[in-house]
């Protein structure tokens, strides 16, 4: 029986990955470690929490008790992080603590428990910004712009140093911009959807011409699954959507699908350190493990829009912070216990 430690499993990508694992591997057990910051939401795991193969542990990855939480696990996928660039510009303290110190702590906990593999889930933002042409490969220099990206780069280097120093069996993955269900509505696509649903202005930073390489979260989960099981230790793998879109075009596409006017778009002052363009070369992953993104962006965006429309209660509660009350009522006792082995 394989036991997988998933940090940050109540967040956007982490919760999608937990659902994916539970469905794909009927004999796997999963231990989710999550602090439940503002971005963590147990509603993202609602049905999964009833599954006896899932154990939820409310814990900060900076807490030395993570060593106990990792006991008996075979594999680890490390999602837990502070993830919003704008927040890191306002105050990077939590980013430094969770993304750097927390990554060191959880990696050491996995090393102490002799896990067979550790995936450091990282981001294309560590490479910085691209001009109009070219793509980042795994050997592109690290050149982070924002405090968020700098802490992720530091975390990657920390994990790779444990690989070199101690032979820690770890892999770093770097993915482009994800979209899909359960994404916290401070991020661009769910924010634009939520604002448009309420007929509120859609804030576009700067000229709206910054480009992101979008990938559906299900394609990211499939790539992580392949790398977790068949990737090579000590390697870095890029995971890109091969789908570059300008922000303004994404906003227009959402408005079109909803039958809302473009006049809702409002240009606002630019984000400092706003990277102009991201694009990832994922040919290493394609050549070694046969992965490629399957979800078409336009279809995936429409399905995502439909998901948020059908989950208006999730959206409202997430935006109002009401999910916190839900958590207190339903899960606090269950969440407070460490897994029994
Ligand atoms: P998210 O913000 O939706 O979720 C983060 C989760 O981590 C939350 O559940 C939160 O409660 C938890 N967490 C935060 N600090 C913690 C701590 N100290 N201890 C324990 N848990 C803590 O993030 P996401 O968008 O799902 O991103 C997940 C990972 O993937 C991150 O490492 C991020 O850097 C990386 N990533 C994200 C994207 C993207 O487009 N969203 C792209 C590439 C890589
Ligand atoms: O590239 C991967 C990264 O993608 C992840 O590592 C990060 O965790 C994730 O937050 C995301 O970072 P971005 O900064 O690219 O995502 P965000 O959703 O914040 O913004 C996407 C683009 O939209 C970016 O060019 C900024 C712009 N934007 C964003 C917001 C929130 C706006 O124009 N208006 C907005 O209100």
Description:
The protein is α/β, with parallel strands linked by helices. The protein has a domain of 237 residues: Rossmann fold. β5, α5 and β6 form a beta-alpha-beta unit. α1 packs across α7 and α6 runs parallel beside α8. The radius of gyration is 19 Å and the shape is globular. It starts with a strand and ends in a 6-residue tail after the last helix. The C terminus is likely disordered. The structure holds nicotinamide-adenine-dinucleotide and 2'deoxy-thymidine-5'-diphospho-alpha-D-glucose (DAU). The site of nicotinamide-adenine-dinucleotide has 29 residues, from α1, α4, β5 and β7.
Assign the CATH architecture of the domain at 3-183 and 215-242 and 279-295 and 323-333: 3-Layer(aba) Sandwich
Structural class: alpha/beta
Mean pLDDT: 94
Please report the first level of CATH classification, the CATH class of the domain at 3-183 and 215-242 and 279-295 and 323-333. Alpha Beta
CATH topology of the domain at 3-183 and 215-242 and 279-295 and 323-333: Rossmann fold
| Cα separation of the termini | 13 Å
- Write down how many β-strands occur, each being a DSSP E stretch of 2 or more residues: 12
Q: What's the helix-strand series?
A: EHEEHEHHEHEEHEEHEEHEHHHHH
Strand content: 15-25%
**Fourth CATH level, the homologous superfamily of the domain at 3-183 and 215-242 and 279-295 and 323-333:** NAD(P)-binding Rossmann-like Domain
Strand order of the largest sheet: 3-2-1-4-5-6-10
Bound small-molecule species:
nicotinamide-adenine-dinucleotide, 2'deoxy-thymidine-5'-diphospho-alpha-D-glucose
């Amino acid at each position: 029986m394989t036991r997988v430690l998933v940090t940050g499993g109540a967040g956007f990508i982490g919760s999608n990955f937990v659902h994916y694992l539970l469905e794909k591997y009927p004999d796997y057990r999963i231990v989710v470690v999550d602090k439940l910051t503002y971005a963590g939401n147990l509603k993202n795991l609602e049905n999964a929490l009833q599954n006896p193969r899932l154990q939820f542990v409310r814990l900060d990855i900076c807490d030395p008790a993570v060593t106990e939480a990792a006991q008996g696990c075979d594999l680890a996928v490390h999602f837990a992080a502070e993830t919003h660039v704008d927040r890191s510009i306002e105050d990077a303290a939590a980013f430094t603590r969770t993304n750097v110190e927390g990554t060191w702590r959880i990696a050491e906990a996995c090393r102490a428990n002799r896990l067979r593999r550790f995936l450091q889930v990282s981001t294309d933002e560590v490479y910085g910004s691209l001009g109009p042409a070219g793509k980042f490969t795994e050997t592109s220099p690290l050149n982070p712009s924002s405090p968020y990206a700098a802490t992720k780069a530091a975390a990657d280097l920390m994990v790779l140093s444990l690989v070199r120093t101690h032979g820690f069996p770890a892999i770093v993955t770097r993915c482009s911009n994800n979209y899909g269900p359960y994404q916290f509505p401070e991020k661009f696509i769910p924010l634009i959807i939520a604002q448009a649903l309420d007929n509120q202005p859609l804030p576009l930073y700067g000229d709206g011409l910054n480009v992101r390489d979008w990938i559906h979260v299900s394609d990211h989960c499939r790539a992580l699954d392949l790398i977790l099981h068949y990737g090579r230790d000590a390697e870095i793998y890029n995971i890109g959507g091969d789908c570059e879109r300008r922000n303004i075009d994404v906003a227009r596409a959402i408005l079109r699908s909803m039958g809302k006017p473009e006049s809702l778009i409002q240009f606002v002052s630019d984000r400092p350190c706003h990277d102009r363009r991201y694009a990832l070369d994922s040919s290493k992953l394609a050549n070694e493990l046969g992965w490629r993104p399957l979800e078409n962006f336009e279809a995936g965006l429409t399905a995502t829009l439909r998901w948020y429309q059908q989950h208006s209660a999730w959206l409202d509660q997430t935006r109002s912070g009401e999910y916190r009350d839900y958590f207190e009522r339903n899960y606090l006792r269950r969440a407070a216990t460490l897994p029994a082995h």
